[in-house]
Write a structure and sequence with these properties.
Largest sheet: 6 strands, mixed
Oligomer: single chain
CATH superfamily of the largest domain: Periplasmic binding protein-like II
Radius of gyration: 20 Å
CATH architecture of the largest domain: 3-Layer(aba) Sandwich
Strand content: 15-25%
CATH class of the largest domain: Alpha Beta
Strand order of the largest sheet: 1-9-8-10-7-11
Helix content: 25-40%
Structural class: alpha/beta
Number of domains: 2
Number of strands: 14
Order of helices and strands: EHEHEHEHEEEEHHEHEEEEHHEH
């Protein structure tokens, strides 16, 4: 059995993957700006409307710092997140300062050591923040009608393999060790069946993201891929066959600083819940359709998967942008 990617990947490969997300974010910002958005991605401030009479007076230099560490729906959904940030600003009456963090393993460190009010994070980051305190869940996305995530093992529809058992001896693409729906689910699945992934499969091909794992599959480089189910939202349903699916767990959430003014929290939540409620507007964003109020219990199975990923969570060589 061969293992490709992972710790053996050269530094340059990892950097290019992260840079690609950052360049796309910045390029998307330019496009959105020409479309009339008042928000700048990166380390810029935007001038928000004045707070209404129900809000306490705030210092003139007060702003909300929002970190984007993980955006559900992938790069194609930046337009929705620009809209979400604008809605936050309008609802709170406070200018929004936005940071995009390309290196996923840095997100937890930033939230623990810097003044951040709101953050779009991965599920694993949310669970770590919940354990350490200081942040609480605010909302989670609804992606193509689904409010919960799952790990799935895929083959192409025309594959001769129709069950997971038939993948013995096959090659499989998966994302880095910090991924719950990819790496975590596959190794949990192997543990449940009493198998060893390194002997069950002929090759484990590690990738920088779920999207890259899917690209490996459709290019014919591997026989199967394991990814988060939400990553399939932009693909036709008939494009892939799911041969194994995990129990569901909550989507990548939006978290908020626990000691943030309760009135601001409520206004931010209301703004996010309102997004996508208008059917005409939601049609512009076919993947991320809006946000919902999640429950901490939604992430029970994610805690189980985290046990299979925690040893590599802060290892740069396993970074998934």
């Amino acid at each position: 059995m061969s293992v490709q990617g992972g710790e053996a990947r050269p530094e340059g490969h990892r950097q290019r993957s992260s840079d690609r997300w950052l360049v796309f974010a910045l390029a998307s910002t330019v496009v959105v700006l020409f479309g009339g958005s008042a928000l700048l991605f990166g380390l810029f401030l935007s001038s928000g409307p004045s707070a209404d009479a129900s809000m306490a007076a705030l210092p003139a230099d007060e702003s909300l710092t929002v970190v984007i560490g993980r955006a559900p729906g992938g790069a194609t959904q930046w337009a929705m997140y620009t809209q979400a940030l604008r809605a936050m600003e309008e609802a709170s009456g406070i200018p929004v300062r936005t940071r995009y963090i390309a290196r996923r393993y840095k997100v937890f460190e930033v939230l623990r050591t810097e003044d951040v009010d709101v953050a779009f994070v991965s599920v694993s980051e949310y669970l770590r923040l919940r354990e350490h305190g200081g942040y609480e869940i605010l909302a989670s996305p609804v992606i193509k009608g689904q409010s919960m995530e799952a790990g799935v093992v895929l083959v192409e529809t025309n594959s001769a393999m129709t069950t997971f058992e038939e993948l013995r001896g096959a090659s499989i693409a998966l994302s880095s060790g910090s991924s719950l729906g990819g790496y975590g689910y596959l190794f949990w699945l192997m543990d449940q069946s009493g198998e060893d992934a390194e002997t069950y499969f002929s090759s484990l091909v590690f990738n920088g993201s779920h999207a890259e794992a899917i690209e490996r599959l459709i290019s014919g480089n591997v026989d199967a891929a394991v990814v988060g189910r939400s990553e399939l939202a932009g693909w036709p349903e008939e494009r892939f066959r799911v041969v194994s699916e995990s129990p569901e767990f909550g989507m990548r959430p939006v978290v908020v600083r626990a000691d943030l003014d309760a009135r601001i929290k409520n206004r931010l939540l209301a703004a996010l819940l309102q997004l996508g409620s208008d059917t005409e507007e939601s049609g512009e964003y076919p993947t991320v359709e809006g946000f919902r109020l999640p429950s901490p219990e939604d992430y029970a199975f994610a805690e189980t998967l985290l046990e299979y990923t925690a040893p590599t969570m802060t290892d740069d060589s396993w970074d998934q942008p």
